[in-house]
Amino acid sequence: MALLLLLLLVISASSASADEDAFIGVNIGTDLSDMPHPTQVVALLKSQQIKHVRLYNADRGMLLALANTGIKVAISVPNEQLLGIGQSNATAANWVSQNVVAHYPSTNITTICVGSEVLTSLPNAAPILVNALRFIHSALVASNLDRQIKVSTPLPSSIILDPFPPSQAFFNHSLNRVLVPMLSFLQSTGSSFMLNVYPYYDYMQSNGVIPLDYALFKPLPANREVVDANTLLHYTNVFDAVIDAAYFAMASLNFTNIPVLVTESGWPSKGDSKEPDATLENANTYNSNLIRHVLNHTGTPKHPGIAVSTYIYELYNEDTRPGPLSEKNWGLFDANGAPIYVLHITDAGSVLANDTTNQTYCAAKDGADVKLLQAALDWACGPGKVDCSQLAQGQPCYEPDTVAEHATYAFDAYYKMNGKDPEACDFKGVAAITTSNPSHGSCVFLGSSDRNGTFLNSTAPSADSKSSNSPINRLHGNYGFSTCLMIMIAVASALVL
Ligand SMILES: *[C@@H]1O[C@H](CO)[C@@H](O)[C@H](O)[C@H]1NC(C)=O
Ligand SMILES: *[C@@H]1O[C@H](CO)[C@@H](O)[C@H](O)[C@H]1NC(C)=O
Ligand SMILES: *[C@@H]1O[C@H](CO)[C@@H](O)[C@H](O)[C@H]1NC(C)=O
Ligand SMILES: *[C@@H]1O[C@H](CO)[C@@H](O)[C@H](O)[C@H]1NC(C)=O
Ligand SMILES: *[C@@H]1O[C@H](CO)[C@@H](O)[C@H](O)[C@H]1NC(C)=O
Ligand SMILES: *[C@@H]1O[C@H](CO)[C@@H](O)[C@H](O)[C@H]1NC(C)=O
Ligand SMILES: *[C@@H]1O[C@H](CO)[C@@H](O)[C@H](O)[C@H]1NC(C)=O
Ligand SMILES: *[C@@H]1O[C@H](CO)[C@@H](O)[C@H](O)[C@H]1NC(C)=O
Ligand SMILES: *[C@@H]1O[C@H](CO)[C@@H](O)[C@H](O)[C@H]1NC(C)=O
């Protein structure tokens, strides 16, 4: 019994202290003709160990399905609701009470995105944007949630003009009337500057001046490296250059301590004849390199070591989005939860298992302490209620008779019994989720022939309607032209140097 308590304590403690500084999250757009049920969405998130998501609304069904999962959630005030909220603190308070207070803390809402690219897609709402931020924040203060939940608004990178060299970047001056009070708000509330970063569009609109490799985080030959002549900082990818441009643009308004959070970034895996670089291989390369870059805490040249957490755009291909073919093909998965491509990442923390297929196992970690393994094995086969009869002498899983092999059998069974909940594969840190099947000989692990692992039964959420996330908020194709021209010119001049 004492051992059980100890293990439970350890398991819960280690899951709470996990990942805090830099994370990869995923955006969940819902413009699918066959949008999976919230339960299925959450099962996919769990199977891929995605622990941060951003919704484009505050869909009740999704918020209920995300309850008690440990997944951290950014919700959004859709642009359609922004005018009302920015004009009335009572409307804002109502919104917070219905969409936040009603779900917190069982659903771990950490962030509220107020509108989406408002300054470019809904310019007539610009005058009330800062009020909307303040009213939502005040409502959180009134509910004593302002420390747990941060408020900001995602902006397109096109508002940053002259982004290369990054040291000379500045914001479109005609937006300063909004941006200055907004940055003051973000600074005083300890919130992030939310930025959508699309090297794909920067590349596409550069007419060949931005090298594809520079957009894809691939190594550039030394003679093509991009150097900011003012700071002598070397840039190896567009993503970093855009983020540093944001830091410098903020600094030009005297704001130097607001972190950047990338609310959208990605690459489409398919396009029409005018979009030849929207390919599976490029999407895979971009997203794999992006994940590695963020989780490796590489930071940017201006702020090395300060990783910029990023939400990938996006979880599903959205077949009903209007526009060019690429618009429907930004997803990592199809509506069935099958991966569009298998990412080129090994061991990238715990998100988006390299093997984006359906099967995962829980195994003893290589080199784990034998005493701890034995204790965890005893627990699993005892209080953990795993049927360990296969491990007895003469049974198929007895050989090889090592603690690690036996523990792996028991850990995996426990993990499967718990619906592959990643938290059920911890065992005081001696276990880890893996994609390689540990079955051997006649010892066949539970679930190793089960290809139905993607959609697990979990608690049924309220059958709220499919969310009505409108596409108009998220057109991100039409900006960045001048931005890119500037990058190109600078790239070109840097090349000459
Ligand atoms: C809303 O604003 C009014 C007038 O400015 C103020 O009296 C009231 O306390 C505010 N209500 C909330 C919920 O903040
Ligand atoms: C929610 O997430 C935050 C940030 O990681 C964490 O500190 C907090 O403990 C979580 N809250 C709940 C109720 O799980
Ligand atoms: C700057 O913002 C204004 C107002 O939104 C817009 O009309 C203008 O086109 C922008 N300028 C550039 C260079 O993007
Ligand atoms: C920033 O601060 C400097 C020095 O304090 C000041 O001269 C400048 O006017 C400020 N700029 C803005 C945009 O507030
Ligand atoms: C992570 O960063 C370190 C130092 O910045 C570098 O040596 C290492 O190769 C990077 N790892 C990956 C997987 O990119
Ligand atoms: C991870 O991806 C790489 C590149 O696609 C592949 O070579 C490797 O075998 C994968 N690892 C696993 C465990 O699937
Ligand atoms: C994963 O599961 C889905 C849905 O059950 C299935 O269509 C797909 O083929 C599976 N993928 C693999 C690689 O087994
Ligand atoms: C997978 O699911 C299908 C449909 O629910 C079912 O017929 C099949 O037996 C399942 N396969 C396994 C291996 O569980
Ligand atoms: C899934 O849920 C259904 C309905 O609640 C239930 O009948 C079925 O047995 C469950 N399947 C599994 C594998 O738990």
Automatic annotation (TrEMBL):
One of its GO terms (molecular function) is glucan endo-1,3-beta-D-glucosidase activity. The keyword Nucleotide-binding does not apply. Its EC number is 3.2.1.39. Residues 1-18 form the signal peptide. Residues 360-445 form the X8 domain. Belongs to the glycosyl hydrolase 17 family. This is glucan endo-1,3-beta-D-glucosidase. It comes from Oldenlandia corymbosa var. corymbosa.
